[in-house]
Design goal:
The protein is an alpha/beta fold. It has helices at about 30-40, 50-65, 85-95, 115-120, 125-130, 135-165, 175-185, 200-210, 225-235, 265-275, 280-295, and strands spanning about 15-20, 40-45, 65-70, 100-110, 170-175, 195, 215, 240-245. Helix 9 (about 225-235) links the parallel strand 7 (about 215) and strand 8 (about 240-245). Helix 3 runs parallel beside helix 6 (about 135-165), helix 8 crosses helix 9 and helix 10 packs across helix 11 (about 280-295).
């Protein structure tokens, strides 16, 4: 993996969003988590995305004292066989003592059936000209509606479970900003959400923090083309954000393109400290306070 960070300061950090159950870590978790501790990452929260992933995540949390789990149904998994039935079991699963949240849940319109057709032609303009009014286009629109409806239902069910159990929610949002906020609004004051892998604007940050929610930054903040995300990391209030890897994805610079792991969250925290003109200790203290409040640790 290489050396993580140049500072001699050992911060105290939490990777608030990892996927430790993914095959990239098969047979390697002891070493991966040892490197995380060496980098100052004292906790890792591993995220379930469906029934099987949630059970794998819980098994990892049971094995490692400093690993916790968030369990839920990812919006991109709602059309999978047995997915909605899993939600009827989620409340019982979430009562496990190592579960600290519900998720990841939310809305994702980036992979709708109509988008798949557009990608096939690699041109939205060409797609519009060729497909308008065709049976295939009509079927794609109908399928889009079914997916959106299932995602919204699953999101609301998981929000209800979170309220029932007194847990907060890890939110996945992609190309569905307004619909996500509209579903969340009736839950204001009943729970809090963290918008994970946040890439929106400072105005978006102000809106969600004003509703009582948080945002979480990944290694994207270290990318050269991430000016908007960097502006949001500068603008967010000290109590309004956390840090994560979303590993095995989104490894920060200088590991971009390689398999990400929890130790890399330190590089994200270091970059945020530079952006905000703060010390790493300050970023560590602020994010750890947010982690303890949000996940009730």
């Amino acid at each position: 993996m290489g050396v993580v960070g140049d500072s001699l300061v050992i911060p105290v950090l939490t990777d608030t969003h990892a996927h430790l159950d993914y095959p990239e870590y098969d047979g390697q978790l002891d070493a991966v988590l040892a490197r995380a501790r060496e980098a100052g990452v004292q906790r890792v929260i591993t995220i379930g995305i469906d029934r099987e992933s949630c059970h794998r995540s819980l098994a990892i949390a049971e094995k490692y004292e400093h690993v916790y789990a968030v369990v839920g149904l990812h919006p991109c998994a709602v059309m999978d066989s047995g997915a909605m039935e899993f939600l009827s079991d989620l409340s019982d699963l979430a009562r496990h003592p190592k579960v600290v949240g519900i998720g990841e849940t939310g809305l994702d319109y980036h992979h709708l059936p109509s988008r798949e057709l557009i990608q096939r032609d690699k041109s939205e303009a060409v797609f519009g000209a060729l497909m308008a009014g065709t049976a295939e286009a009509t079927q794609a629109e109908i399928a889009d509606g079914a997916v959106k409806s299932a995602q919204a239902e699953a999101f609301k069910v998981q929000l209800d479970i979170a309220v029932e159990l007194g847990l907060n929610v890890t939110i996945h949002q992609r190309d569905a900003w307004q619909d996500t906020l509209d579903i969340l609004r009736p839950f204001t004051g009943k729970l809090r959400g963290v918008f994970h892998c946040f890439g929106g604007s400072p105005e978006d940050v102000a809106e969600v923090v004003g509703m009582g929610h948080l945002v979480s930054f990944t290694g994207i903040v270290t990318f050269k083309n991430a000016a908007l995300t960097q502006a949001s990391a500068i603008s967010v209030a000290a109590e309004g954000y956390m840090v994560e890897t979303d590993c095995p994805y989104l490894a920060p610079v200088p590991f971009r393109g390689s398999t990400c792991e929890p130790a890399h969250v330190r590089l994200t925290a270091e970059k945020i400290a530079v952006l905000r003109g703060e010390t790493l200790d300050k970023v560590s203290a602020d994010t750890e306070a947010a982690v303890r409040r949000f996940f009730k640790l």
